[in-house]
Amino acid sequence: MVRLSAGHFCRAFKRSLGVAPVAYIAGRRVACAQHLMLATDEPLSQIALACGFYDQAHLTRVFRRYAGTSPHDWRRRHRDDRAPVAAPRPRADRQELAFA
């Protein structure tokens, strides 16, 4: 699609955004899960699938790496602070990348 080798694309991506493509996608999926955990009462298994994780165990492993706690504990701790959650807006200085 962009006519670059995988290695060259990964280096250019990391130079542009500061993180590798795999880490960027994982971070976006964790942010999606956090948003859904606060905005809905869906079970974590459904949230995991909606955000692109294979299953709830995969969500838990990746979430713990990024947030330092399990999704269940994070949800319970942040539920008290719950306020209306707006959808994240793209920053004006950087276009959002869409991954399928």
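^ that was protein a. below is b, sequence first then the tokens
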Amino acid sequence: MARNKDEAINSYITDMLSLEEHIEKAVRGQLNDLEDYPEVTRDLKQVLRKVEQHVSDLQELSERRKARGASDAIKRAGSAVLGVGAAAIDLVRTEGLPKNLRDDYTALSLATIGYLMLHTTALSLQEREVAELARQHFADYAESVTLLHNVVPGAVIRYLREEGLPVQEGVLPEISRTIEEIWHSQSNQAPRAAETSVAQSR
């Protein structure tokens, strides 16, 4: 049975709220487990503040739109998204610092694309308030993912050093250049949303 406009948007809101609540729980646990890495937990606390704000925003929006009364079909869709997120971030307590951050990156990337989908859905269905909220959350996570790009190399080197391996810490400037060069080159080469094949085939 076809959904109406509100059901389509509310299903995305419900999915994102479930995912954000899961990320919040995982990052809180991670902060306790990484007490020996204060420079990393400082960055993760920034991420957690954003997650907490996202949860609050989505709860308020969900209540206002009565989106919490989701149908079983919507709940199943939310569970599917949440399952991917859980697989990405439930390893945080067993895998060590670099892999913890890798799992954070995976979870935040999932949330980032989810917000882009919500933004697109809301904007195309003329729900400007929802579109603007999704845009802000998308921007927040784009910033957090960029932060992790820059934190992970140092975390990997520190972890390897703690394992007694003969690491060369002088490679970090080269790694920074690699990150900047590759992302810059790809952003210039990738087609814009309106120029993709799927957009052209409307």
